[in-house]
């Protein structure tokens, strides 16, 4: 089956294709082929292929752009007499076949654009020679302006070599120093064979063949180009990206044994702490649920601070240094049966913090079922200073309870706004929700409230805590999520709490646009142009 991809359009500029999540984002930079930079309307034509045999068809693509206010923008094209035009994509314009004119019923402002695509079939008896296409673009009282870009089509009776199609996999993600095997095995040629694969990795590195290995020495987002050449010399180049994250100078990995205990029992936590570079005063900060008791077992040369659950080394580490810190955790006898989470960070002087990886969950099971159970969820769990997150607490009764209540605690200075009290009475002075009445087993309520972080809040991980109780019952600790991270997520354009390919797509949607620095959120580096610099900012803050 013949695979035809318009990948040889000779636009005189730069074309970058970002293959993300199975979606190709095409970004076209107009270059010297765009005539009349000061024109109110600018049209640029590309032709693919530019050599055909009599009776064959080629495709014309015209990028139409407005540099100011235009009423009824239009495009008029001229092809040699007897050649047949078939519209492919009018992009909202109305096509008039008798005049080969595309007209928009409406008005454009500066920055509006459209891509008009049409096929042209050459008559079977056409003379073998080079022909020219021409055209103009205009609007009400504006223009006409000549269409720039490509104009010539060569009609030749010999067989036209179909170029190969470069099809690199991607995007790729790795950390600094990690090896990536670049795969271009999806490339093929419809009327020949591919004789070479050439790679440019975007950091002065090059490779050849299918699956070359390459490691990056610095972090960022790199444009990777794959060029394939067939046995007749035709080539095609396509791009993908390599998103390279920085290597954490400190890495901590937690293991928990056992990960299921009864109320009142003890489990052991082991944290392996490793350095990937020079670090002064490396430290480990751990967080356990409120009321749980930590007893150090082996500090491995670190100093333990029980008031903050922090282990600090007085000294410096080099790459390869490591320590294994071990501590026991005792669960309160009245702990609710549910799954709890531990969290923590590692840091050094001017370094980090970096989240502790590995195991996080401990299940408490086998004790007496409490009369009230409360479970908290936090969304999103990462916000910037000044932003708001939502807390949802599911409160459930396992027996008869009079005046069930919920008491929550947030960091000092943070503002709580109730969203849904679900029949409970909210007391803002104490952050308490109380039901005037009684519950039986099976009764439940969902209490929802927003929390706004102060604009000057320190970037770190904070904890929420709380209890639920009734008349003569409890208190029982609120389970579920406890941690909220305050961090400036530069590049989180879609506000989903992560910086990833979705944010890259949003930059791609405005590629090449210009304006006052910072005029839209996608201008991440505030230089007034949406381009590779904004992609680099996303790569530097990548969360995945």
Describe the structure concisely for a colleague.
With 544 residues, the chain is mainly beta. It contains two helices and 54 strands.
Low-confidence stretches: 1-35
Beta-strand residue percentage: over 45%
Using the CA coordinates, give the radius of gyration: 32 Å
What's the CATH H-level superfamily name of the largest domain? Answer: Immunoglobulins
Strand order of the largest sheet: 8-12-5-3-16
| Terminus-to-terminus distance | 37 Å
Number of domains: 5
CATH architecture of the largest domain: Sandwich
Number of helices, counting only DSSP H or I runs of 4 residues or more: 2
* SS-derived structural category: mainly beta
| Secondary structure: helix percent | under 10%
Q: How are the SSEs placed, and which strands pair?
A:
Elements: E1 15-20, E2 23-28, E3 41-48, E4 51-52, E5 57-66, E6 70-71, E7 74-78, E8 84-89, E9 94-96, E10 101-103, E11 107-108, E12 113-121, E13 130-132, E14 134-139, E15 142-146, E16 148-149, E17 152-155, E18 172-175, E19 179-181, E20 194-200, E21 206-208, E22 213-215, E23 220-230, E24 235-245, E25 250-257, E26 260-261, E27 266-275, E28 279-280, E29 283-287, E30 293-298, E31 303-305, E32 310-312, E33 316-317, E34 322-330, E35 338-341, E36 343-348, E37 351-355, E38 357-358, E39 361-364, E40 372-379, E41 382-383, E42 388-397, E43 401-402, E44 405-409, E45 415-420, E46 425-427, E47 432-434, E48 438-439, E49 444-452, E50 461-463, E51 465-470, E52 473-477, E53 479-480, E54 483-486, H1 501-508, H2 532-540
Parallel strand pairs: 3-16, 4-17, 18-24, 25-38, 26-39, 40-53, 41-54
Antiparallel strand pairs: 1-2, 3-5, 5-12, 6-11, 7-10, 7-14, 8-12, 9-10, 13-17, 14-15, 19-22, 20-21, 20-23, 23-24, 25-27, 27-34, 28-33, 29-32, 29-36, 30-34, 31-32, 35-39, 36-37, 40-42, 42-49, 43-48, 44-47, 44-51, 45-49, 46-47, 50-54, 51-52
């Amino acid at each position: 089956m013949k695979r035809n991809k318009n990948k040889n359009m000779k636009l005189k500029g730069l074309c970058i294709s970002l293959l993300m999540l199975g979606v190709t984002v095409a970004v076209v930079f107009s270059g010297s082929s765009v005539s009349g930079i000061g024109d109110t309307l600018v049209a640029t034509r590309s032709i693919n292929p530019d050599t055909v045999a009599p009776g064959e068809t080629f495709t014309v693509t015209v990028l139409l752009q407005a540099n100011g206010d235009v009423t009824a923008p239009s495009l008029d094209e001229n092809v040699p007499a007897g050649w047949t035009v078939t519209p492919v994509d009018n992009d909202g314009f109305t096509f008039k076949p008798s005049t080969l004119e595309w007209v928009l019923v409406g008005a454009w402002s500066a920055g509006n654009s459209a891509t008009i695509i049409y096929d042209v079939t050459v008559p079977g008896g056409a003379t073998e020679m080079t022909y020219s296409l021409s055209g103009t673009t205009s609007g009400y009282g504006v223009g006409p302006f000549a269409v720039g870009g490509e104009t010539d089509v060569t009609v030749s009776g010999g067989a036209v070599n179909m170029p190969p199609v470069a099809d690199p996999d991607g995007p790729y993600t790795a950390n600094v120093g990690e090896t990536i095997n670049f795969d271009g095995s999806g490339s093929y040629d419809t009327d020949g064979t591919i004789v070479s694969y050439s790679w440019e990795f975007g950091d002065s590195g090059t490779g050849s063949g299918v699956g070359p290995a390459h490691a990056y020495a610095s972090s960022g987002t790199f444009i990777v180009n794959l060029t394939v050449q067939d046995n007749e010399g035709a080539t095609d180049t396509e791009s993908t990206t390599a998103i390279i994250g920085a290597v954490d100078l400190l890495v901590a990995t937690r293991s928990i044994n056992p990960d299921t205990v009864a109320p009142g029992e003890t489990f052991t936590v082991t944290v392996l702490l490793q350095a990937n570079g020079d670090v002064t005063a490396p430290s480990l900060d751990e967080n356990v649920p409120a009321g749980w008791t930590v007893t150090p077992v082996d500090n491995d040369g670190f100093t333990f601070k029980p008031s903050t659950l922090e282990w600090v080394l007085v000294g410096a580490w080099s790459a390869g240094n490591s320590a294994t810190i071990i501590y026991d955790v005792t669960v309160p006898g009245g702990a609710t049966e549910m799954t709890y989470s531990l969290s923590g960070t590692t840091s050094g002087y001017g370094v980090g913090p970096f989240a502790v990886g590995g195991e996080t969950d401990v299940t408490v099971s086998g004790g007496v079922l409490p009369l009230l159970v409360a479970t908290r969820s936090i969304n999103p769990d990462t916000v910037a200073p000044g932003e708001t997150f939502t807390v949802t607490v599911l409160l459930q009764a396992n027996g008869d309870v009079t005046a069930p209540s919920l008491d929550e605690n947030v960091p000092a200075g943070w503002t709580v706004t109730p969203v849904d009290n679900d029949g409970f009475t909210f007391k803002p002075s104490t952050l308490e929700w109380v039901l005037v009445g009684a519950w039986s087993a099976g009764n439940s309520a969902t209490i929802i409230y927003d929390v706004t972080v102060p604009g000057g809040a320190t970037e770190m991980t904070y904890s929420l805590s709380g209890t639920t109780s009734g008349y003569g019952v409890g208190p029982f600790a609120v389970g579920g999520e406890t941690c909220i991270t305050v961090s400036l997520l530069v590049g989180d354009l879609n506000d989903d709490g992560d910086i990833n390919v979705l944010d890259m797509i949003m930059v791609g949607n405005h590629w090449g646009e210009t304006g006052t620095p910072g005029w839209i959120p996608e201008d991440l580096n505030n230089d007034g142009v949406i381009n590779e610099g904004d992609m680099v900012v996303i790569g530097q803050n990548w969360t995945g």
